[in-house]
């Protein structure tokens, strides 16, 4: 089984087993090919595979695969905020100030 066939990892969450099954089904997390296609991950990864000078100095065995994983993680955290329980999202109304 290749990495692209493996279910996407939600990480440690506080979701119940039932809620996690629902979330996995609703967001195609057990079908990474469907998740990738819906989010245009392959096309975006190809565009972002060019390394920055700092990254090029260190090198990468597969810049496109690296970009794909970063995009998947970002898309997953956007679609399923519960997948990043240690993250804090602050939402403000436009008229609120800091």
From TrEMBL:
Region of interest called Disordered, as start-end residue ranges on this chain: 1-98
Origin: domain of life: Bacteria
Ranges annotated as biased composition (Basic and acidic residues): 18-51, 65-80, 88-98
Protein name: DUF5709 domain-containing protein
Organism expressing this protein natively: Prauserella endophytica
